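User: Could you check the structure of this?
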Amino acid sequence: MTTEIGAFRPGPIAPVAKPGENVLLVALNHYSLYEIAYIDTFPVSGQTIIDVGALAASFTPAGSNANSSPTLDLGAGQLGQWRFQVLDDIVVSVAQPAAARHSLRLAPSNISAFTHLMHPDDEPTEMFTFEQQLDTSIAFTVRNPRPVAIAQSRLMFYGLKYILIGDLGNGKRGTASSGSLSPLAQFTSIDEAMRSNYKFVVVPIGGWGS
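Assistant: Sure, the predicted structure tokens are below.
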């Protein structure tokens, strides 16, 4: 039996699965199976507040390209489940890594401080990342919508960290201390994974089907 984790799960942030259960990570049409060993938290703290810095007036972008912050990089074999709040009067568009999140046909929707007012648990901002791989990293463009400059542009991230069990080679399973953790099983499609003997929760990382 499988459970699909979508982009909007109502209520406060909660684990997608328990230690001892499996997750199927989906990124750029790769389907990788891992087991959860342990779950830790990313509390709200200075370490997870990203300040893009001062912005000039009137929708001036923070740089010419989207910015991917190393603050959100994880260690080997680690899965991150993130939500975020916008702390200043800015608007944010998100890509993961190249495919726009929250996108309409002609333009992406934006996240702002107003989003938290409408959704106090920040459900629309939830996303997942894996290790330091570029195909799952969160990239964001921050803009100032006001006719006056602002001194700071802060995003506050919080969430959960999963320590995963994968294939260590030579028939061994375990967690990783360095490098990139190989999956316990690799599939070419969701259908192939569902025909296997594994039970798992589907977790889209890097955008669903991007």
